[in-house]
Amino acid sequence: MAVEPPLYLDACAAAPPAEPVIAAMLAAYQGAWANPSSLHGFGFAAADRLERSRQSIAAALGFPASWLTFCSGGTEASHGALLGAAAQLPKGRLVISAVEHPAVQAAARQLEAQGWELAIWPVDGVGRVEMACLDRLLAPPTRLVSVLWGQSEVGTLQPIETIGAACRRAGVLFHSDAVQVLGHQPLEIEALPVDLLTFTAHKIQGPRGIGALVARPDLALGAWIGGGGQEAGRRGGTEAVSLAAGFAAAIQLAQARLKASGGRDPLEPERDRLLAALEPLAGVTFTGCRQRRLPHHLSLLLTSPSGTPLPGRQVVSHLWQRGLAVSSGTACSSGRASGSPVLGAMGYPPEQAGSGLRISLGPWLTPSQLDSLPARVSAALVAVQTELT
Ligand SMILES: Cc1ncc(COP(=O)(O)O)c(C=O)c1O
Q: What is the mean pLDDT of each run of 10 residues along the chain (389 residues)?
């Protein structure tokens, strides 16, 4: 009997590279392998390939190509945004939400060590920033705000446009980490009231090791990596032409999918169907915001029938034994004994904050493959309960 391959349901951690992405990277490596700064035909070909990738990404996402700085990924882009912007500003207050990715938290701590005041914007029980705090948080000496657009662990979307408009009125710079949103909703970046946006390629079936910081041109953004003056002097280092080509190809694929389904992520109805089948199971509780959430994302809290929290990592391991690759929270927080800081910030007590489960879908899955999921989750929960008693 043929053994079924495991199902990959961890798109928010990384997504398997798509065939056209690999083909675009191979073509760029073969035809445009030279240093884009070289002043000969080989170099010109590489520079041309790089700029065509930049233009393709910018056109797909609705902003001028000169706004895009390629870098190594989301972590670097967020460091570039915060450290690069702060370098041009007088010291003041930086506001970040309580559910930021560790990359933004780390950059914020660096600024705090340099003398910036750091304020944490609290969230409610579904992970949305408390809008009642907005005016107080934007008052002087606030100069910079960073709020994650789509939360990777609980899927909640923040009201980016409202926050950005308020930042504009207050004369405060606004950065958003849009890593999880990219490819899952149409974006018209030039029209957004956002000054800096972080992206990465590997969550949308692009290559690992490339991302982008998109910055408005009126920002005199400082260099965050010095060197040979590449990327308009902001980010030194010979450009990864082939990775940029793969990134552009991944964005084209995602855009085509969105366009074909009228601007909505076709994964959303599958996610909703799955949620409707999982929620009635004993010991399963939904987390995050129902109405405003990432369309491919589902997050749950797991307990025994008597309400005892089940260790998320143990559930993940039992699900893997049943052919499902999922995660308990983010890849970055999955090693913490104290549970998820995100669930903690949302008000879950420590004993529950280690019981999260995240299922994130991608276009490589077919609807029928998801049919067996609820039964496998049920079986894994029973197995963990048995192990614990
Ligand atoms: C919301 C968010 N921001 C930033 C990152 C970091 O991106 P990268 O792995 O490209 O550095 C991730 C990846 O886990 C993420 O989920």
A: 85 97 98 97 98 98 98 98 95 98 98 98 98 97 98 98 98 98 98 98 98 95 91 95 98 97 96 96 95 97 89 94 89 60 95 94 95 93 90
pLDDT value for 338: 65
| Of 200, 210, 293, best ligand 1 pocket probe by most atoms within 8 Å of the beta carbon | 200
**Residue 200 near residue 179, CB atoms below 8 Å:** yes
- CB 127, CB 100: distance < 8 Å: no
**Best of 71, 99, 101, 157 to mutate for ligand 1, by most ligand atoms within 8 A of CB?**
101
Whether the CB-CB separation of 281 and 374 falls below 8 Å is answered with yes
Q: Where are the alpha helices (DSSP H) in the chain?
A: 19-31, 41-61, 74-86, 102-113, 134-138, 160-170, 241-260, 267-278, 312-321, 341-345, 373-388
pLDDT tens for each residue of 242-295: 999 999 999 999 999 999 999 999 999 999 999 999 999 999 999 999 999 999
pLDDT at 339: 83
Ligand 1 center–CA 109 separation, angstroms: 17
C-alpha 171 chain-centroid distance: 26
CATH number for region 7-15+265-388: 3.90.1150.10
Which positions are annotated as active-site residues? Answer: 332
pLDDT of amino acid 307: 86
Strand-pair partners of 186? none
What residue owns the CA closest to ligand 1's atom 15?
179
Return the domain boundaries, the chain. 7-15+265-388
Rounded distance, CA 319 to CA 60, Å?
37
The set of protein residues with a Cβ atom below 6 angstroms from ligand 1 is 73-75, 101, 103, 148, 152, 177, 179-180, 200, 202, 211, 331
* Alpha carbon separation from 120 to 123, 151, 229, 331, 362 (Å, rounded): 9, 16, 35, 22, 32
0.90 exceeded by pTM: yes
Rounded Cα gap, residues 254 and 385, in angstroms: 40
The pLDDT value given to residue 324: 97
Edge-to-edge, what's the strand order for the sheet holding 68-71? 68-71, 211-215, 196-200, 173-177, 142-146, 93-97, 117-121
In angstroms, rounded to a whole number, what is the distance separating the alpha carbons of residues 111 and 65?
29
